[in-house]
Amino acid sequence: MKIGVLGSGMVGSAIAGKLVSRGHEVKMGSRSASNEKATAWVSSAGKGASQGTFADAAAFGEIVFNCTAGAGSLDALQAAGAQNLRGKILVDVANPLDFSHGMPPSLFVGNTDSLAERIQAAFPEAKVVKALNTVNASVMVDPGRVPGETDIFVSGNDVGAKGEVTRILKDDFGWKSVIDLGDVTAARGTESYLHLWLRLWGAVKNADFNIKVVH
Amino acid sequence: MKIGVLGSGMVGSAIAGKLVSRGHEVKMGSRSASNEKATAWVSSAGKGASQGTFADAAAFGEIVFNCTAGAGSLDALQAAGAQNLRGKILVDVANPLDFSHGMPPSLFVGNTDSLAERIQAAFPEAKVVKALNTVNASVMVDPGRVPGETDIFVSGNDVGAKGEVTRILKDDFGWKSVIDLGDVTAARGTESYLHLWLRLWGAVKNADFNIKVVH
To answer: Is the per-residue pLDDT at A23 higher than 90?
Structure first.
């Protein structure tokens, strides 16, 4: 499958790299077509890896991952272009972290709204699926780094899109348990969880952790 | 031990009942000394159970549990009286739920503040420990209702107070794993988790659930 990955940071590199290793063709999108981190990633990832602008990557992908920093996501997606996202699944992995109040970060949207909802509202013809934002980049694509079975979540308005993303999470990323939390407003739940994630990180002193819902 | 429990709802009844069954003397506090729900609880709970005003219960307890609804907690604690809380451990079980925007509820404080912090700021001579607000009332006092070992959290500025609350959570309530998340600002994490808890409740369709942190 042809996949666009917006963002060349740790999350974008982890997701793009895993998808290439699984045999997909992946174009990493950045602000400029000659982004150095993207160039380095293309060199190391090998066959199937390419790079371009946000618009190039979005046009290339049959499905698009938003792996940009939350504070820049809407700008990056505007640069990607609504016409390049129309009708496509847009997997939103970003968290709306706000570092302006110091550490730990707070969130610049929450409670009665979420970043995923803002993205869905700005791109109504894309099928936004919030996913993977509850674990660090390494665990996203290698859930076995956490010693024990844990859960990952999907939220979105399009049931078919959630099903397709669930298939990728299971077949390509190795997740065994994917919990559907409901429509895109459920992203308020997984984005707000970052407040707890940050404190748990401080308590367990290792970012390779996750939660298991026991019921 | 003499314990004051503020609130006669499901949470107050569950906690007060469990503490009486463990041999503690418990006074349930309400807005009025003749609150009907408190009277019913005293009748059913038997030896060791009594009732009174918020101030009566706070004065009675060597340790005090805030089990009032979050929206009324500061008023209830003002009625309880700073002089009756001075130097005491105040276990804050409340969540700042706001039902004014419809269902699911949002939170009336969060992100860069929390209900526990507001309580600590209003009662600087009390030792506020946020605990138990991440599970429903039944699970708080009977963690075995969830089929599998799960975690409960404490947050607060006083290390000794957190140790004493941890002992009660383990010895009286049956929790095996109590995770110390840090100072009272960590209550932002467990209170914000309510957004995820509400969506998980919808997904698992059973309020007797909890999370296990795997690392």
So the answer is: yes
Residue to mutate among B180, B181, B195, B210, with most A CBs inside 10 A, is B195
**A37: exposed, middle or buried (Cβ count in 10 Å: 0-12, 13-18, 19+):** middle
User: Does the distance separating the beta carbons of B110 and A111 come in below 8 Å?
Assistant: yes
pLDDT digits 0-9 by tens, B131-186: 999 999 999 999 999 999 999 999 999 999 999 999 999 999 999 999 999 999 99
For residue B195, list chain A residues with Cβ-Cβ distance below 8 A.
110-111, 188-189, 192-193
Would you give the DSSP letter of residue A29? E
In whole angstroms, how far apart are CA A211 and each of B26, B82, B83?
A: 35, 38, 41
User: ipTM more than 0.85?
Assistant: yes
Which residues in chain B are closer than 8 Å to A209, comparing Cβ atoms? 213-215
DSSP secondary structure code for residue A201 in this structure: H
Is the pTM value of this prediction over 0.90?
A: yes
Is residue B155 within 8 Å of residue B189, measured between CB atoms? yes
Question: CB-based contacts of B149: which residues, under 8 Å, 6+ apart?
Answer: A214, B176, B177, B212
Read off the tokens for B203: 């997904």
Distance of CA A9 to the CA centre of its chain: 11
